[in-house]
Amino acid sequence: MSLKEQIIENHNEFLESLRHRFLDDDRKAALQKFENIGFPTKKDEEYKYTNLKEITEKSYNFFPKENHNITKEQFDELHLGEENFDWIVFVNGKLHKELSKVSIENVEFLSFNYALNDDKHKEVFEKYFNTIASKDSAFTNLNLAYCKYGFFLKVPKNVVIEKPIHVFYISQNQEENTFYNTRNLLIVEEGAKVEVIESHHNFDDTYVFTNSVTEIFTYPNAKADWHKLQNDNNTSYLVDNTFAKQEKDSLTTVNTFSFGGKLVRNNLDFIHNGSNINSFMNGITIIGKDQLVDHHTAVHHNFPNCESYQNYKGIFDGNAHGVFNGKVFVDKIAQKTNAYQQNNNVLLSEGASIDTKPQLEIFADDVKCSHGCTVGQLNEDALFYLRARGISKKEAQALLLYAFANDAMQNIDIEPLKEKISKLLAEKLEVDIEF
């Protein structure tokens, strides 16, 4: 039985397992859309360079076992040296309060499953939930049909959350390949501020397929930062769909750091709904062996005097394959737009490859928009310069690669996260660097 057939066959049982049923009609409609669309293939332009057969030809368990035996030592290894952070821990889909640390006050925070069961949040869900997620994507429709796990966070007007919040999604003790549909909803009201870190971790040798959808709403003069730390094992597949809608004078950042996982697809969509908006997207990808990481970004400049900045760096070794497809749309009324998009890549082996396609669609005439991409190898003159000063070839290569990737981290203002990314860079490049 194909995965598509499994999805259709298991849906009624999934619905029966839920306590909340007010989304039933939406879920059934989404499943019908998914059935009509089907999983994308390489014949689809948006998936031309990403073959999903490895994911879709496997069988999965749709109902994860909840019990686990994660030790404190195992969990501590996932931390970033973040004693002063808050953290939210989901294990096998379920929120575990005993593993979490939540000290934030004056906010509405609930697990997604609980929020759906709470009548007082029904109005909020009707206003925000699934309003900016794509209605035409197989994966967003699949997520709507099956979503149950994840969190809902609403930061009220002028509330500044000083501590970053790290959200852990952990899968462990699963005897079969497991399928998760995580759903996150972040609402940052006027003048509020919050920073979220998201990471996924599979502790088993069985395969995990996570189909995640996140919707972010940033209101006037608010600031929302979302950092994705993707460093899972080689039996993990992740399709991540993130949608960010910004109102005037707001700032939203999504940073994506991709170091692990067998196949990772990141779909990132920014929607401008006011003037004087700033949007930042940064990415660092370092992969090897036969890993694949695919970044698809889109920024919709719909109002004047807005800025967007995209900076993605990729380092590929072994038979790794990278994809970058970045789009910037500038509406005819979006005068004074300033949009920057850059994708730079280094290939370290003959088997590594990158398909990159930055794109601009501009219908306004008073704009500053640039895009570009580079694909190459390390600069031989710079290597010679370092080696002439007694540095080994391997160390010289690693130092150059570290410097190449480093500028994509410059807007991280969470020092433990920046240090963690730096250490992961150093580990991947096998070089000793002082922090």
Structure in words:
The protein has 435 residues and is an alpha/beta fold. The N and C termini lie far apart (51 Å). The chain is globular. The relative contact order is 0.09. It has one domain. It contains ten helices and 19 strands. Helix 2 runs antiparallel to helix 7 (138-146), helix 8 packs across helix 9 (393-406) and helix 9 (393-406) runs antiparallel to helix 10. The mean pLDDT is 91. It has helices spanning 3-16, 24-37, 53-56, 72-76, 112-117, 122-128, 138-146, 380-387, 393-406, 415-429, and strands at residues 86-91, 94-95, 108-111, 149-155, 165-171, 178-188, 193-202, 208-218, 223-230, 236-246, 251-258, 263-272, 278-287, 292-301, 307-316, 321-330, 338-347, 353-362, 368-376. It has a ten-stranded mixed sheet, covered by helices on one side. Strands 3-4-6-8-10-12-14-16-18 form a nine-stranded mixed sheet. Residues 175-404 form the SUF system FeS cluster assembly SufBD core domain. This is Fe-S cluster assembly protein SufD. Belongs to the iron-sulfur cluster assembly SufBD family.
